[in-house]
Each structure stands twice: as C-alpha cells, then as structure tokens.
Amino acid sequence: GAVVSQHPSWVICKSGTSVKIECRSLDFQATTMFWYRQFPKQSLMLMATSNEGSKATYEQGVEKDKFLINHASLTLSTLTVTSAHPEDSSFYICSARDLGETEAFFGQGTRLTVV
Amino acid sequence: AQSVTQLDSHVSVSEGTPVLLRCNYSSSYSPSLFWYVQHPNKGLQLLLKYTSAATLVKGINGFEAEFKKSETSFHLTKPSAHMSDAAEYFCVVSDRLTDYKLSFGAGTTVTVRA
Question: Which residues of B fall within a CB distance of 8 Å from A104?
C-alpha cells in the first residue's frame, strides 16, 4: 500500500508555544488529507479535511484558529497547534487519499504533550 | 448519515482460538467498509476492505470479514489468534454521499491470553 509519513512521532512543548506536525505522502499524490485527534482509549475524531490548494474544512467544535492546517502541495499537509495548552495534549493522526480513490492511508501518528 | 457500531468494547481470547469482532454499520448509500488495527502509540494499519466486490474479504495476517447487506454487518474473524494480534481494532465505513469521509467505530480492544 501507499506510504504516509508523519513527523514528528512525539513532541513535548511548553504551554503557549506552537507546534507543527507534518504529514507527507511518499509515493502518491494526496489530493485530500484528513487530520484526526485521538484521546486515550478512544476512537479517532475527525478534526478537519483539507484539499490541496484550498482552505481546510473543519468539523463542528474544532477551532480553526487553534489548529491551523495548510495543504500547499500534493504531498504535504501541516497541522499547527497554536498557543498550545495542556488540554491539547493528545495523539494526532493524519491520513491521505488520492483523487478518485476511496481508501485513505494513515500516518504513524504524533504524540503531543504540552507541559 | 453513516455510522458504525462495534458491538464489543473488549474481546479476550486464548492463543490459538478463533477471534470474532462484531461490527454493524448504517449507510444510506453503497458503503465501503474497512477494518483497521492499531498497536499502542502507532498509526492505523489496514487489515482489509470491502468495496462492492466479493462479499467475503480476505485480509492480512489471516483475518477475513464478510459483508452481509441484509444484516448490515461486517464482522471480522480469524481462525487462530496469535499473541501479536493483541491491539485495538476499528471498523470504519465510508460512502459517496459523504465524499468518502471515514466514520469510525468506537474500537474493540483485543487481548490474547497465553
């Protein structure tokens, strides 16, 4: 299957700082990328959907000014957690899908800890 | 709207015995159905998928699932559990009406006893 690389795999940051997470499709063009958040022992919650070259569509209840998503190229999307607080600590996972495909491929996830 | 219900939050089996993870779905259009596995602090790995071809789908690591439209089910099975099968399993549905956004079940934790 196709490969999606997510970086970093874990990060610790101080409250009030911003953190950027990258999601790259390595061997296909990701026209659509999805960002999820996962709390311990819970399922994945979709945060936003981004299409290359256009603004991301955020799910209800997700603060777009807090979670900035950029999808400037067909192989890269970034999620920036701005002014992070301890309650933003979570596991963030991206997935990527090519145009016309139904299957999405997942990154390895990023464990964010805000102290 | 599409949704998924995983009927068991936790399944415990002995090594070498069969595994059954139950999943029921709701979709207003022809769905695509997936089973993913997640090991601790890892991303998701696709076990198998159904996309309107054969109703019995074979996946990796000896897993298989059967799509039953009349029962709106997509249960995952494996004839003989291995210790490495201990993980979290997610049943997922998508369809064209939602532009193939994935809807996740709550997950089933599988533990395997030696």
Answer: 100, 102
Over the stretch B61-82, which tens digit does the pLDDT of each residue have?
Answer: 999 999 999 999 999 999 999 9
Distance from CA of B65 to the nearest CA of A (A): 17
Question: How far A17 CA sits from the closest chain B CA (Å)?
Answer: 23
Q: What is the pLDDT of residue A1?
A: 65
* A108–B43 CB contact, under 8 Å: yes
Lowest-confidence pick of A33-42, A78-87, B21-30, B96-105: B96-105
Q: What are phi and psi of A34, to 5 degrees?
A: -125, 140
Contact of B85 with B17, CB cutoff 8 Å: no
Return the number of other C-beta atoms located less than 10 Å from residue B108's C-beta.
22
* Closest-CA residue to B57 (of B91, B107, B102): B91
Which phi-psi region, left, alpha or beta, contains residue A85 (left: φ > 0; alpha: ψ -120 to 50)? Answer: beta
* pLDDT beyond 70 at A45: yes
Query: Which residue in chain A is spatially nearest to B47 when comparing CA positions?
Result: A1
Q: In DSSP terms, which residues pair with B91 in a beta bridge?
A: B35
Q: How far apart are CA B76 and CA B23, in angstroms?
A: 8
Q: How would DSSP label each residue in B42-80?
A: --EEEEEEESSS-SEEE-GGG-EEEEETTTTEEEEEESS
User: For residue range B16-52, what is the model confidence (pLDDT) as tens digits?
Assistant: 999 999 999 998 778 899 999 999 888 899 999 998 7
Report DSSP state, residue B42: -
Please name the residue that has the structure tokens 């079940």: B105
Phi/psi for A86 (5° steps) reads -55, -35
